[in-house]
Amino acid sequence: MKASIYDFTLKELGQLLKPSFRAKQLYLWLYAKYKTSFKDMQNNFSKDFIAYLEQEFTLRTIEITHVRKSVDGSKKYLFKSLRDNHTFEAVLLKMKDKKIDKETNAILEGEKYTVCVSCQIGCQVGCAFCFTQKGGFVRNLKASEIIQQALLIKEDNNLPIEKALNIVFMGMGEPLNNLDEVCKAVEIFNTGMQISPKRITISTSGVADKIPILAGKNLGVQLAISLHAVDDKTRSSLMPLNKKYNIECVLNEV
User: Fold this and answer.
1) Model pTM?
2) Cα–Cα distance between 196 and 162 in angstroms, integer?
3) What is the rounded (10 degree) CA torsion for 234, 240, 246, 250?
4) For the chain, first and last CA: distance in Å?
5) What architecture (CATH level 2) is domain 61-252?
6) Class of domain 1-59
7) pLDDT for 176-227, tens place per residue?
C-alpha cells in the first residue's frame, strides 16, 4: 500500500526526494495551494518526477461523508478512511474575533476558527461521560489522517489559505496514547499549514507518565488536562484512568 504524502514531515521529504529542494516545492503545492492531484503540480515538476510521485505516494486517504451544522455556526464532520472504511469525527468552531488596528485604533471585527481533531478511532480510556468509548478502541490515526481533517474542513468552508486556524486535540481518542503520530501532525501543522504551535492545544485525560515525554519534545504547544472532578473518588467513578494516575500523580507531572 502506498504511503500518504501527508505522512511526511518537511525534513523527511528533504531526505527522500532528490534534489532536496523539491520537498519545499511539494509542501507549497500540498498546503498552500491545496492540490489534490500530482498532475496539477506540473508547473514545477517534470513528467518523470510526477510519475515517481504517483508511483510511490498517494494523496487523500480520508473523505467527508456527513456534515451537521449548528445554529451557532459550528459544524460537526464525519470522516471515512478510504483504506478501511472506519469513521471518525472532527468539529469546526466559529467564534467572533475583535482586533485593534494599530494605526487607527479602530476595532476590527472578524471571525476566528478552531478545528477540534480526532487522533484515534475509538478510545481506550473509557470515561463514563464520553460517547466515543462505547464503540471500543479500533486503531490510532496516522498523522496524515489528522492533518487531512483540518485541510478538508478548511477547503469545505472556503477559508483563505492565509487564514490561521487554531487546532485542539480534543476529538476522539487520547492524544498521549498516540503520541508519535500526534507529534508528527503538530510538526506538519506548523511547517506545512503554517499554524503556530501556540495555536495548538493537546488535551489529555491524564496519562501522567507520558506528559514528561511530550514536554521533552519541545513542541511549544499548549497542554490541557481533563480533571472533571476535584477529588479522587469522584474522578475515579468518571474516569477509570484515575485509579492508575490520580489527581496528585497528574499534577506532579505538570
Assistant:
1) 0.92
2) 12
3) -120
4) 40
5) Alpha-Beta Barrel (3.20)
6) mainly alpha
7) 999 999 999 999 999 999 999 999 999 999 999 999 999 999 999 999 999 8
